[in-house]
Structures are given as structure tokens and as C-alpha cells.
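Input C-alpha cells:
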């Protein structure tokens, strides 16, 4: 349910951008994000994880800046910066021997510390790559290409990355998880 809710702001952005332009889409994205995060806040009993805070605050800042200054440059920077923050956070966490992917995926995979660090670095590099792609589409391509990539172009890339990871890591699935699915 959470993942489906998180697509609502993207749909609002895409539909509004097509019908009314980028500035209106920034408003739709901002409003939809606030509504969806209010729902998350209630469902999560008044708590957000750090990733949710980063996305919410940066969406408010970049969409708000876009609307207040009537310049879409701020909205164009949103995705490269969010992906950059995630990339840097993951890579630093692996470097200091506190790989964040271990916290997120410990119930799914059973890995050594070296494995967790490699997985965390892989995700960090993935987010760096996505930040680069968002930057390229935002600043070197047409508005239509940028809107399309921002709305749904990144999804197949993410799916391929996640499927490839599960293919590589399937032998490391947590035994408790595979025992539950066999029952």
C-alpha cells in the first residue's frame, strides 16, 4: 500500500505537467506529496523514517522555491539532489562499517559484513547513477523528455537493478524467510 501511495505525487505531476505546464505540476507535486505524507504519518503512528523526511523536506523546498520564484530550475534540481544525498549516505555508511542496507534488508538476506558493505555500495552507486540521469534529463533535454523520465522513465531502470540484485543474492535469502514461504 505504501509503495502505491508514493506513486500518487508522480501521477499528479505527470498529468498536471501535460495539461497545465511545469509550474502547475510543481504545485500538484507539492500538494500530492503533503497529502500522501500526511497519510503515511497517520498510518505510521506519527513517525517518518529518515528517507521520508529527506524526500518531504526537499519536495517542500524545491517545489516551494519553484512556485515562489516562478522558475522551474529549483524543481529540476530536486531529483539529482535527493539521489545524491541517498548515494552519499549509503557510501559513507559502508565506509564507516555501518552499512545502512543491513538495517533495511536484514530480514530478507543473510550476509557477512563484507556482503552488506558491497550491497550498500552497490545501492549507493545506483543512486549516484540515477542522480546523474536525472541531472542529464533535467538540464540537457527537452521539457517533455525530462517530465517523462521524472515521471516513469526511471522505473524500468530501478526494476532491472532490483531484479538483478535478487538474482545475484537469491542464495543469501534469509532461511527464516524461505521457511515461512514453504509453509
Amino acid at each position: 500500500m505504501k509503495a502505491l501511495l508514493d506513486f500518487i505525487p508522480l501521477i499528479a505531476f505527470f498529468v498536471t505537467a501535460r495539461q497545465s505546464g511545469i509550474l502547475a505540476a510543481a504545485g500538484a507535486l507539492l500538494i500530492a506529496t503533503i497529502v500522501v505524507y500526511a497519510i503515511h504519518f497517520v498510518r505510521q503512528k506519527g513517525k517518518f523514517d529518515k528517507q521520508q523526511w529527506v524526500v518531504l523536506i526537499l519536495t517542500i523546498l524545491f517545489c516551494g522555491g519553484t512556485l515562489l520564484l516562478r522558475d522551474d530550475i529549483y524543481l529540476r534540481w530536486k531529483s539529482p539532489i535527493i539521489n545524491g544525498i541517498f548515494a552519499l549516505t549509503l557510501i559513507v555508511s559502508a565506509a564507516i562499517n555501518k552499512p545502512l542496507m543491513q538495517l533495511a534488508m536484514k530480514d530478507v538476506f543473510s550476509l557477512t559484513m563484507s556482503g552488506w558493505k558491497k550491497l550498500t555500495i552497490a545501492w549507493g552507486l545506483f543512486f549516484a547513477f540515477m542522480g546523474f540521469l536525472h541531472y542529464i534529463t533535467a538540464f540537457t533535454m527537452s521539457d517533455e523528455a525530462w517530465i517523462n523520465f521524472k515521471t516513469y522513465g526511471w522505473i524500468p531502470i530501478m526494476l532491472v537493478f532490483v531484479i538483478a540484485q535478487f538474482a545475484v543474492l537469491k542464495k543469501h535469502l534469509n532461511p527464516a524467510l524461505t521457511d515461512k514461504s514453504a509453509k
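Residues 80-183 form one domain. Residues 6 and 36 are 7 Å apart (CA to CA).
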